[in-house]
Specification:
The structure holds two protein chains of two kinds.
Chain A lengths: L16 H23 L2 H23 L4 H6 L2 H12 L6 H17 L11 H12 L22 H10 L8 H4 L4 H10 L4 H5 L12 H17 L6 H20 L7 H5 L4 H8 L10 H21 L6 H18 L10 H6 L1
Helix pairs in contact in A: 1-4, 1-11, 2-4, 2-5, 4-5, 4-6, 5-6, 6-16, 11-14, 12-14, 12-15, 15-16
Chain B lengths: L21 H4 L4 E2 L5 E5 L9 E2 L6 E2 L4 E4 L8 E2 L4 E10 L7 E9 L20 H9 L13 H9 L5 E6 L8 H8 L1 H15 L4 E6 L3 H14 L4 E6 L8 H9 L14 E5 H13 L5 E7 L7 E6 L4 H7 L9 E4 L6 E3 L12 E5 L16 H5 L6 H10 L2 H6 L10 H5 L6 H57 L1 H22 L1
Helix pairs in contact in B: 2-3, 2-5, 4-6, 5-6, 5-8, 11-14, 14-15
Classes of the chains: A mainly alpha, B alpha/beta.
The structure holds iron/sulfur cluster (2 copies).
């Protein structure tokens, strides 16, 4: 009898990329549902458009690079990029904005850098930043959260579809009627207008910590993130780093002067903090790899988010923070190499 | 009963794996009858192959020396049973490089008549350690944990170091393998006596027997044997069940909390590690005069009808062993010599069971695994690496063939345990890649060393020639002086003599 031969080990690997990516997608489902509940069905259309363009971009690039198209589509990594783009964009976004973000993310940020595993920047964040700069006006159409007591006229399903496809609002609904400044915007402009945080926070748009509705979506994002942690799809270092990086400076300044600084809880539960901590910063390809390095990487992102929110010209700083730290990744990895067992000191090791 | 101790160091990473050992440990060790044919490779140990001392057609007896050690690091081979030498030829074997190796083939007569056994050394305490070591040299004993380093040489090298502990390694962390476990259960006394012999040979008085916590029967048996033999120098240490805690350096790290320095040996931290099987082999040789001609091997896997542990003569072919345990099942697709993490797949069951064969593992077909994908830098491999390497970086540099980087990222420290492979979501064959990269690096090092040697030889030759020339010039000068004093007649003589000297010198150089 002739036996099959291959190299040790002879056990089957425990998991695969596709299943990891799939579980990341599953973990986002509760947050998507919450998003629909509070902000209308817009995110679903964003999702569909982002998925279409991400997958098309992935397929096209694989074809051009003469790589197996099937395998790339089957690993769901493009789907994860699409999901994060959909989350980052306002629920009312014209399709070409979503498409631009998706294509830039996949084609330029991912494949021009060498494809899965070689991209320096997080594709979703790279795509988002491009549309943030190219279509700043289109990224302002955040609807108000669906909470009974807010005076607001919600676009219907058909109106949402129409807006997504044409970018035209129903004639009876002006831009001002539909859009609401996000809590982050309100706090930012409020603080710079010398209003106290308590004053700003005293507004039907604000919830316990972050914005109303916003904080609930954040809760569900965090829930999915914790599930991923429990499944060991992601490790705790990056989420903890991001949250700590945001909490420590904001907590310190809030403690120094609660009047002119927003509460750390507000920053934690508004904007894309949770999404970043559990789903964006944890993208392994563009993150640091060693446990210590990941803590530093996460902390850097958290800190930078705070810096942009507090002193930058944009309301949220997640995308910039992530992209900046992506650049720092090789250095962090290099400096946080563990001491190899049996080697004495890192110093000595470096010299060799 | 000496209580197991928990005062242990820790290992980074590692994997908890299904043990898959219950199938094979359900029965006691079964003895395989003498097969009709024995195939004994000349190289069953690390180092130089042994050289045959018998010729074809010769009749040999059980325990007779048939191939003697050759060179500094080598071990002799003995006939595992009586019979006739029918061939000394290339035969398929299981090893990392190459498929075939020279083997001595014996056609057994079934009588199993023993050679005049070498005098057992009892009591061994009466013998001085030096001659005990010399004696072990001739038993054909090699490390049975897998590295098959000749035991005597290992012991002799260790006596030059300052040792603290002898560690008897009963940690069998790789799934499926259970031969050491059953050996400890059934031959605990021999293990302890073997340890005593080794202690005496090394002039040590501290021995630790390391056993994993998931082997309560083994621990119990050893404790009983210790109580009976009343030896307070020997202590059992219980080790957490995690792969690869049984690897030599890892055992040392666990029981002594000391790391074996890179490129070094356990003796650098005062430890000498011997496998429990080796201890038994030492006992059998010193106490009973029987060289290493049989061993316990686990025959298991879902491709084996009745998994069990067998005591087989070295040289029995795998086919004979599998026949004895009831043959293959229909699912048998892969034949692996060794464990599922570090073993070697072979294509035919004609290969013989050798001193190193701790397991014959027959598995069903590879469950369909996804094709290899690019590394997504998830870092899981680094999480489990017991050496704290960064396999993802090593992989990167191995692909780029960047030798300097491979060196600084510790490729040579990789113990090829396979943990990183198992957790890699991209299914990259990391361990195989590292093995290859290491081989390439060794080759390169060999070449450099050879070039270096050649350069040195050339240099020293030049120096020597220059020196000789200088010497000769001086001699000539002195002779001239003498001649000037002695007169013209002597001149002729001396010139002739120096001429013939010149010739012979230049001949030597060429
Ligand atoms: S095979 Fe080498 S790199 Fe991989 S886990 Fe084991 S020691 Fe680390
Ligand atoms: S486990 Fe595999 S995919 Fe993950 S970092 Fe290591 S080599 Fe890359």
């Amino acid at each position: 009898m002739e036996f099959q031969r291959h190299d040790a080990p002879f056990f089957t690997p425990r998991t695969d990329v596709a299943s990891i990516m799939r579980q990341v997608l599953y973990a986002l489902i509760p947050a998507v549902l919450a998003h629909v509940w509070f902000f209308g069905p817009g995110i679903l259309f964003n999702l569909i458009i982002a998925a279409l363009f991400c997958l098309a971009g992935e397929a096209a690039m694989m074809k051009i690079r003469r790589r197996p198209v099937q395998a790339a589509l089957a690993d769901y990594s493009a789907m994860v990029t699409a999901a994060i783009i959909a989350f980052a964009l306002p629920s009312l976004t014209p399709w070409w904005v979503t498409a631009t973000a998706s294509l830039f993310g996949i084609v330029v940020a991912k494949h021009l850098y060498g494809g899965l595993g070689f991209n320096v920047f997080n594709p979703a964040m790279a795509g988002y930043v491009v549309v943030l700069i190219a279509f700043p006006m289109d990224l302002n159409l955040w609807t108000a959260p669906r909470m009974g007591d807010i005076d607001y006229q919600y676009p219907t399903l058909l109106e949402t579809i129409r807006y997504t496809l044409t970018g035209v609002l129903p004639s009876d609904l002006g831009f001002d009627a539909v859009s609401r400044a996000t809590p982050l915007d309100q706090v930012k402009s409020g603080l710079s207008n010398m209003r106290t945080f308590d004053e700003i926070h005293n507004n039907p748009m604000m919830g316990h910590f972050g914005g109303r509705g916003w904080e609930w979506v954040s809760n569900f994002v965090a829930l999915g993130g914790i599930w991923l942690l429990l499944k060991k799809i992601i490790r705790w270092q990056i989420p903890l780093g991001v949250l700590a990086g945001l909490l420590i400076p904001s907590g310190f300044l809030y403690w120094v002067d609660a009047g002119v600084h927003a509460s750390p809880g507000f920053y934690l539960f508004s904007g894309a903090t949770m999404l970043c901590a559990f789903f964006v910063a944890t993208d392994p390809v563009s993150a640091a790899t060693s446990p210590k390095g990941r803590l530093i990487y996460g902390f850097g992102i958290g800190f930078m988010i705070y810096a942009v929110r507090r002193w930058g010209s944009y309301a949220d700083g997640v995308a910039f923070a992530v992209l900046l730290m992506n650049l720092a990744t090789p250095a962090i990895d290099y400096l946080t190499r563990p001491r190899i067992v049996g080697h004495r000191k890192l110093e000595k090791w470096r010299q060799e | 009963m000496s209580a197991p101790t928990f005062d242990l160091g820790t290992l980074h990473g590692g994997l908890r794996m299904p043990a898959c050992k219950d199938e094979s440990t359900a029965r006691v060790i079964q003895h395989i009858p003498i097969p009709t044919q024995l195939v004994l490779p000349l190289a069953q140990h690390a180092g130089e192959p042994a050289h045959p001392v018998v010729s074809i057609g010769e009749r040999v007896l059980r325990g007779q020396l048939i191939a003697d050690a050759d060179g500094m690091i080598s071990a002799p081979v003995h006939a595992s049973s009586s019979g006739k030498i029918v061939a000394i030829e290339q035969w398929p074997v299981s090893r990392r490089l190459g498929e075939n190796a020279p083997c001595i083939v014996i056609e057994c007569d079934g009588l199993d008549s023993p050679v005049q056994l070498s005098e057992p050394i009892v009591p061994f305490e009466k013998v001085d350690p030096e001659s005990l070591l010399q004696k072990i040299l001739h038993g054909g004993i090699v490390g049975l944990g897998g590295a098959v380093f000749p035991t005597a040489q290992k012991l002799m090298a260790a006596t030059a170091e300052s040792l603290e502990h002898l560690i008897i390694n009963g940690v069998e962390c790789e799934p499926y393998i259970s031969c050491d476990d059953v050996l400890m259960r059934e031959h605990a006394a021999e293990i302890v006596i073997g340890a005593q012999i080794l202690l005496h040979a090394l002039q040590l008085d501290h021995c630790l027997i390391a056993v994993e916590s998931d082997k309560p029967e083994a621990i119990h048996a050893l404790a009983d044997a210790l109580t009976e033999l009343q030896d307070s120098r020997i202590v059992i240490k219980q080790i957490p069940t995690i792969y690869p805690s049984g690897a030599e350096d890892q055992v040392v790290q666990l029981v002594t909390k000391k790391e074996v320095p890179t490129g070094g040996l356990p003796t650098d931290v005062g430890c000498l590690v011997q496998n429990v099987g080796t201890a038994v082999a030492v006992h059998n040789w010193i106490n009973d005069g029987e060289p290493l001609i049989s061993r316990v091997t686990t025959v298991t896997g879902d491709g084996i009808a009745a998994p069990m542990n067998v005591m087989a003569r070295i040289g029995t072919t795998i086919a004979d062993v599998v026949n004895f345990v009831g043959g293959y099942t229909d699912r048998a697709k892969r034949l692996i010599i060794g464990g599922p993490m570090t073993g070697k797949a072979v294509s035919t069951d004609r290969v013989p069971l050798v001193k190193a064969t701790n397991t014959i593992l027959v598995l069903s077909e590879t469950p369909a695994v996804g094709t290899e994908q690019p590394c997504i830098r998830c870092g899981e491999c680094a999480q489990v690496c017991p050496i704290l390497l960064l396999p993802q970086q090593l992989y990167w540099y191995a692909c780029a063939d960047d030798e300097a980087k491979l060196r600084s990222y510790g490729l040579i420290d990789c113990i090829e345990c396979g943990c990183c492979d198992l957790v890699c979501p991209s299914h990259i064959p990391l361990t195989a890649d590292f093995r290859m990269a290491k081989a390439r690096m060794r080759e390169l090092a060999d070449e450099t060393a050879r070039a270096e040697r050649a350069r040195k030889r050339f240099e020293s030759r030049t120096v020597r020639l220059e020196r000789e020339q200088l010497q000769r010039a001086q001699e000539l000068l002195e002779q001239r002086k003498k001649v000037q004093k002695a007169g013209p007649q002597a001149i002729q003589e001396i010139l002739e003599r120096s001429k013939s000297k010149d010739n012979s010198a230049s001949e030597k150089d060429e």
